[in-house]
Design a protein that fits this description.
By secondary structure, this protein is mainly beta. Helix content is about 10%, strand content about 30%. The chain has 3 helices and 9 strands, in the order ααββββββββαβ. It has helices at about 5-10, 15, 145-150, and strands at about 25-30, 35, 40, 50-55, 60-70, 85-90, 100-105, 115-125, 155-165. It starts with 6 loop residues before the first helix and ends in a 14-residue tail after the last strand.
């Protein structure tokens, strides 16, 4: 019987961004009606708008979603690791992220050099998060530190996709390769 290796491990999201964790919640990420499979490749033109993200869980449970690029500004020179693209807190279980509070507005990924991983991490909150301080910069964000400071514990779900810069003049909508 063949062993299946988690795409988060193959894509080095586990180790570079997250410690090993046990997924406890289902999370579905959809861009323009296309369900994202962890580790797939997407074009910047497809991901210009925030995705629809649905999560399982009970309505009385609250979650935090963090979206980061651990390869900023380039996979070879990731001195801005991690760059945060989106943070939504107080998301009720059994729904979608639009029901939460956007702390850091969605910033569409636009990688300049190389292939970047864009990671969605979902944490279960112990209660409502109030008065979260504004980030001074999106660069040098640390998902592990953010989780610790806000007492979030380990992730309950995660997914990622790969993205590279589109050639000039290619701003047309291109289908995802998932």
């Amino acid at each position: 019987m063949a062993r299946v290796i988690d795409p988060l491990v193959i894509g080095k999201v586990i180790w570079d961004v997250l410690d090993v964790f046990v997924p406890m919640i289902d999370m579905s990420v959809t861009y323009e009606g296309k369900h994202i499979i962890t580790g797939c490749d997407l074009k910047p033109s497809i991901i210009a708008d925030p995705p629809m993200i649905k999560i399982s869980g009970k309505r009385n449970e609250l979650f935090t979603l963090v979206m980061i690029d651990p390869d900023s500004p380039s996979p070879c020179h990731f001195n801005m690791r991690e760059f945060v693209h989106w943070i939504v807190v107080n998301i009720p279980g059994g729904g979608d992220v639009t029901k939460g509070e956007e702390i850091v507005p969605y910033l569409a990924p636009k990688p300049q050099v190389g292939i970047h991983r864009f990671v969605f991490v979902l944490f279960q909150q112990k209660g409502p998060l109030h008065s979260i301080s504004e980030l001074s910069t999106r660069a040098n964000f640390k998902t592990r530190d953010y989780s610790r400071v806000h007492d979030l514990g380990p992730p309950v779900a995660a997914a990622f996709f790969n993205c590279r810069r589109e050639p000039h003049g290619r701003n047309l909508k291109v289908k995802a390769t998932c």
